[in-house]
Fold this protein.
Amino acid sequence: MLIAGNWKMFKGPDETAPFCHALRNADLPEDVDVVVCPPFVSLAPAVQALAGTEVGVFAQNCHWADEGAFTGEVSASMLKELGVYGTLVGHSERRQYFGETDKTVGRRVEAALAAGLDVIACIGETEAEREAGETEAVLRRQLAVLPQDDDLVVAYEPVWAIGTGKTATPEMAQEAHALIKSVLDVPVLYGGSVKPENAADLFAQGHVDGALVGGASLDLESFLAICRTRS
Ligand code: 13P
């Protein structure tokens, strides 16, 4: 089981240090891999506070070039230099608001893996796509740019379930995860309004290997409750 907290654009360095110190001192189940994904400016304090622990620090994005004239971007080798363990790529908010495409997602994933970062690649359909019966085609298209790799994890995050309180039913998650696993032999996380109250039902699905948690990962107690959830 892997539980990753995507902080999105929350928690600057001042908030990150005490949060990560508290996480460091918390009782975490040994069979659960725990990851936090702070904003870029908070990566250094997170790496520092969690040094020597099993908790992984991931970025939320990384560029495909090693360096260059790409204002506002950060490369995989820079993240490695900082002690960051991995990165998210292709989150639907990047696709929706920042022009991320399947092609750029593929390039970012490839570069991150080549640099030795673990990658959680995010895919998922919009509500309109699901209603139009296009879920499978969309997921297959988004998966087509991802390589088979031991350091790759896929997060299935239906866009309509993100930040809306509308979780996919465990059966919907299971069905999408089965499709993903028929294409790539990788662990698959579910994301979209995961909370301590619904985590057990989701984790009870055989193809759900963990969760990518947004809002509920910002509060230590609810994040810990999800990490400690048994199906
Ligand atoms: P919420 O858990 O806030 O719905 O966010 C999910 C998400 O986008 C995680 O990457």
About this structure: The chain has ten helices and eight strands. The chain has a mean pLDDT of 97. Strands lie at 2-6, 33-37, 56-59, 86-89, 118-123, 152-156, 188-191, 210-213.
